[in-house]
Amino acid sequence: MVGSYNAQQILRFPQKLEGSIAWNFQFTSTTTKYCSINLLVVQDESIKTMVTTLTCLLLGSPSEEPFCIQVDDQRIVDSVKDAIKAENPDIKCPNRKLKLYVAKKNDGAWINSSDPLLRKLKTGMDLAEIGLLTRDPIDTLASVREIFSEVSETHVIHILIKVPDSENSHSTAATLSVMPVFDEGWTYRWKEAFNKERVLPEALPPVADLESFFEGDLPVKIGVPESFYRWSQRFYCSERIFKPTNLEPCVTFLNEVGYRAIRSVTDGDTKATYISYWDDSIRNVLEFVLSGKSSRYTIEAPLDGGPATPDFVFVLDSVCVVRGEEEGPKPLVAESPRFRKFDQVPWRHDSTQIRAHRLNSYNILHTCPRVHLLLAVLNMSRLLQSIASLCPATGKDEYRVLSRSNGVEIFLEPTRVTKTFLPHKFFAASEQEVVYHVLDRKTVNSNRLLRSDHDKRRMIFAPRGIATKPANLKELFIAICGVLWGLRGLHAASWMHRDIRWSNVMKRNNESTSWFLIDFMDALLSPADSSSGAHLRRENHAPDIFDPNRNHTTAVDVWSVGYLIETSDVQGVDLGKITAFKDELMHSDPSRRPTAEAALQRIMELEKEYLQEIKTKKKETEQNTIAQKRAAEDSDTSPSSKEQRTA
């Protein structure tokens, strides 16, 4: 036996019971609160009764010690629940919601009081192990003797108890009444002090130390009312997060983050039921303490053959510092896909696959692990700013989240662009699906619509380009040719883009030098009346779009190509014919502007002339260089040498 014991009482009943002698020893430990198993035999002429003492453990309750109950072994297991509730008045749920499990490991051994697993069961830290132990609850209609007939060992746990958080009298709702209504800057001051404690780049911990770092005390603890603090102490590690204060409680933090992160949750059958819980536990916490931007999208089977999009990303200083892969509920076994998915995710950075290391598991269905996860996420947030600062330029902007003034959210990933619209905006945007079908048929030089999700009001496009203007005249020719090539096919189908600006002309995000058109949200069939373009800006669109006396046609796109040349910022060369070509494209009379086909032919001619001029100038430069070199050699040669060379 482990530890020292004092005999409380020894009862010896040398009576025969079913052909054997029953001995009973009842001990109470002086060093622990664990009790041994005791059999009290009461025998008279009419009755044979055995009272069994069982040791129980509340799962996910780090402040609770194991406790003992005594039950008649001829009663059904449901009576065990009555005994448990009698020992724990805080458990208010009906018996049907109280789940009991036999405390045996896979090898059939009882969980010993000195087993390291005990701490994990109390804190709810090891999701896989707990899942294995709680796969099958005890049959409540079975007898106690039937379930615990093999109970003979001492110093072990026999029953694991799972209490639904929402039925527990210690719910978070009970603490709301003690919370002050207003936050007088206390959360702001905590947040400011907390962010000053971020880990500097040179002090980032090695991977081997991350787990202990995540479980460490916050450098600046969050002030909460004393009543809330007392309630939180029943959960593992809460004292590492909070400090009691009735003078300066962080009301805003608790209202916007705390209650959401640790509130009771309900089990679900689908992935969608868990999204809000994941967001409350991770996404919302990061957005509250850091100035980054997050978003969540799921493309599990990309039509363009690219990699699946992370379900969740958190971007800080144009660097994706946190990404999440999520999966719905499955049978909770250690080798199930639910646990294998982490190892199968192709984590990449700058096109290079990186190693992944699992740190911990958190069962977010229970409050205690959620408090534990809150501590981990807050500590993790102290590392992210430095991680972002160390990211090389090639790794920046891999993922970005942009918010437009019209309510459109744009999520940029390496190969795709996802736009999410407000409800009234999505209807208008989705009507443009028809023009993208035209683009596919005409093989227009533009982006493509991969998918339109009406339920989530989002549209997914590819490829993702780079928003940059041409750096020189050569690149300008390439960009204008790309735009006109796209317009040629679009206009052939009687469609017009109507919003061609450099912000809607992207350079391809690869090694090639080419540009393509994007954003056909204002595209219409030609001709169209002026009312359809009332939302466009006059300073960067063709004037005929706004003329109430006539319809506008595909000529407005030709005008916009001239506007691209005018706003290209290409300098240091004599544009000459290019300027004249631009003026022709932007003619005030739409009928005198060339078609996209004619403009394409003209720009190709100008490019050819330009390249020929470059070639001629290069040849002249080479000849001049040779002549200058010979002249220099002649100046360094003596007269006699010149005469000999001449002879």
TrEMBL record:
Keyword Secreted: yes
Domain Protein kinase positions: 259-647
Matching InterPro entries: Crinkler_N, Kinase-like_dom_sf, Pkinase_fungal, Prot_kinase_dom
Compartmental location: Host cell; Secreted
Any single Pfam family the record assigns to this protein: Pkinase_fungal
Gene Ontology cellular-component annotations: extracellular region; host cell
Keyword annotations: Secreted
Region of interest (Disordered), ranges: 615-647
UniProt superkingdom: Eukaryota
Gene3D superfamilies in the record: Transferase(Phosphotransferase) domain 1
PROSITE patterns from the UniProt entry: PROTEIN_KINASE_DOM
Gene Ontology MF, one: ATP binding
Protein's name in the database: Unnamed protein product
Species, as recorded: Phytophthora fragariaefolia
